[in-house]
Amino acid sequence: MAKKLVTLRIDEHTLQVPEGMLVVDAARKVNVDIPVFCYHPKMDPVGMCRMCLVDVGRPVIDRATGEVVKEADGSPKIAFGPKLDTACTTPVSEGMVVITNSDKVRAARKEVVEFILTSHPLDCPVCDKGGECPLQNLTMAYGPGTSRFIFDEKMHLAKHVPLGELVWLDRERCIQCGRCVRFQHEVVDDPVIDFFHRGRSLEIITDSEPGFDSVFSGNTTDICPVGALTTADFRFGARPWEMVSAASLCSHCPVGCNITYNVRREAKTGGNMVIKRAMPRQNEGVNEIWMCDKGRLGYHFTESKQRLSEPLVRKGGELVPAGWDEALDLVAQKLREAGSSLTVLAGGRLSNEDLFNLRRLADAAGGQAVLDTHMGGGDLAALAVERGAALIVVNPNETRLDKFATHTLRYNPGELLLTFGGFLESAAGKVFAEAENALVFYGSNGLGLQQSTYLAYAAAELLVKTGHYGKANNGLIPVWPKANSQGAWDMGFRPASNLGDQLRQSKAVYIAASDPAGDDPALAAALDEAKFVIVQDLFLSETAKHADVVLPAAAYTEREGSFTSGDRRVQRYYPAATPRGLARPDFIITAQLAGRLGVELPAAAALVLDQIAAQVPAYAGLSYQKLAEVHEQWPIIGRSDVYYGGTGYENKHGLGVQLPCAAERGEKIDLPAAANPVLPSVPAGSLLVIPVARLYDQGATLRPTALLDGRIARAELALNPETAEKFGLQAGGEALIAAGGWRVQVAVRVDSHLPVGLGLVPRSTGVPVFGPTAVTIEPVQVEIKA
Amino acid sequence: MFQGLWTTLKSMFEKPPTIQYPEEKRPVRTRFRGRHVLKRYDNGLEKCIGCALCASACPADAIFVEASENTDEQRFSPGERYASTYEINMLRCIFCGFCEDACPTEAIVLGDNYELTFTERTGSIYTKQMLLEAVPEGVKTTPQVTPPGVFTRSVPEMKDPTD
Prior knowledge:
The structure holds two protein chains of two kinds. By secondary structure, chain A is α/β, with parallel strands linked by helices. Chain A has five domains: 5-101, Ubiquitin-like (UB roll) (Roll), CATH 3.10.20.740; 113-231, Alpha-Beta Plaits (2-Layer Sandwich), CATH 3.30.70; 312-372 and 486-562 and 580-616, Rossmann fold; 392-479, no CATH class; 686-780, Barwin-like endoglucanases, CATH 2.40.40. In chain A, 22% of the residues lie in helices and 21% in strands. Chain A contains 20 helices and 35 strands. Chain A has an eight-stranded mixed β-sheet, sandwiched between helices. In chain A, strands 1, 2, 3, 4, 5 and 6 form a six-stranded mixed β-sheet that branches. In chain A, a hairpin with a 2-residue loop joins β32 (734-739) and β33. The longest helix of chain A is centred in the middle third of the chain and has 17 residues, at 449-465. Chain A is globular. Chain B has four helices and five strands. Chain B is elongated.
């Protein structure tokens, strides 16, 4: 329901804004700057800094009649308050008059800035915020030229306080606006930092272990109006005005956060363009103006020393450098020989363009296109997409999401029931069925490929049964493990039910951006049996070590492309840095290979997308121009007024396009019958373990970020204390877990929140558990030295 | 004609204005703007804190700075920040002296050296080691090991400029 509109006057502008809007926001609608430090458009106002003082007048109303009192000339009589009001806490009202440019207001601002600067160190030359600092800008615009306070009376506090290993605090610079504390409490709900002491000795502290234990901690450095909070990653990296920005996307998960890379030439790297930092780029439909620390810090893989810079060909058992022509000619010859027994295995971090070209190459050769994933159900994602909704969480173990859930359901993975039988009769099920709009997000937490595929079928069946499909804000959204797994499904890649066998039988295996050998020793053995292995990757991965030809790919930051997020929004990214060595973009390598096989594939990203639009029905009508379209978003941030929304970037390079769902396109989806998957039997003395995802995983693109070393997932087995005791395991100890041909030593973590009789193993940590698996457990005796 | 010969004869006994450069060098004026020098404090620490304000003030974009962090075990300059890379391209420099004006610590000074010759273009890039002045006698060069908590401030206390 549209809110009632209120008419008010701000300086010489008369405007209409929705009821309840704050004066400070209303002023922005007419480009009147009301300076603020503590106010932020994404958080509740607190009125702490007093910078936004304005003169507010309201029409005088006759108490007897309820009529507005008129002046002699017929205009309404306005009564101004005896003092100035804070624009950030005052909602607009009918007939209000706001004056922001009077001498009185100017004097107030000047005094507030002078007061805030009483204890500010003014070390702008060495401050990372210098150049994009709200305090610096507002002091220049509104502050006094000199201070009446004595320099010696300034508070001299610690300048180097690590709140955690990621974010550092400079106590002197803090102006106590509380934006960081409010962000953690209100926006993230991770209240790990707080105020301590009062008044002039107020300081920001962290009360978590490890310090500032929040995955969104980096955002506080964006919204900090001074240089009090800075990231350890960017510390002294460059001055803001020295860097150029390139619009990009985060490649770590399928949310598809819009980001901006700040790039600069560096002498240290021989004059190459180097990414200095990643900043959020506004997209109110995706990440608003925030991003997580994984995205913020996880770009270091692009500059890793381990990056491949030239093609390698196996000669006499060794991989030796070769030219592109030599490598491509050899690959083309082998592909021709392999014919239909070619397997193209792609990872979900490739762009749509790469995947499309790879698929076309596989089709041309008559081979098979396989997606390397342990989660299924992508063909149903086409079922298709407000706050204040009911949230039903169904999980085997407790997760952070439970805190926000209106209904929490637990299932025992031992008796995995995925048909949602009986769900609609439960209280949660009734809420679901009666909801106007309903979405099902499904992931592969604790599930393998087969189980998650059935889960998708079951969820789809449920949505169809309750009529929640084929319209906006309804449907099924997969929470993929990789940034572009959705795109891979759309481009026609499907997971293989038995990847090992398929690899073994292939005459040629073409692997791009995927590391099956590193994930699973069984697949490494299978690769050795394959006749010819081509690996196209950023690094010399475990798989690449088994390869006959290794082709160096350019990282996504070094080229153009597009990703399709989990909710099927296609977004494009732009080149930020220059490719490493001789590395080439994946889609160009594929096109060049195809050319040698007599198939013409486009070798420019925009042309590939044009072909995708022509050949993939869901992508019909897409073009790079369309993906680059923007419209004005609210709140307005990222312009010269960094004081308002922080240092996040305005989106000038495209908000992306939401793909229509299959029903909207008039297609019919065949719903496969949901069935309960077969679970491994758990013999006596064994334990059922399930794989769970960790944010800071050991993926190839996150490992090179040294700063996250302390927080990255390790090989561990998490158990309930009761279960641990049964297997003779102790918290903090080690255990050997084994199943079908592998044995891995893991750390033991005991957690009373976990269900009894179940073990949790993080994915990507070298433990080859990809679905519910029965394992045997042996405690490792730790020698205690006297 | 005799007048002319007299002038010639007179000039033969005058002291010649020519000097035998490079054996002999003429002193420069006090405000001469020659090659830059990066100054040090008396204790040997570098005045430059790597703030790159000189680079941003430079109209010819001749200066390039990269900063890194000081520790008490490895201290180059007071405060947290120092210039780990400092390069001036003398072919681009127009010797305007804006860098001096921009410097918050008076670290960069246009000195009296005007002998800038190079045989190749890369030689025109003067690195930090070439620009830094020598440490005063009896003082250790940078990086120094310093007691903790002493050199916490990058910018020395402001005084009203006197000249």
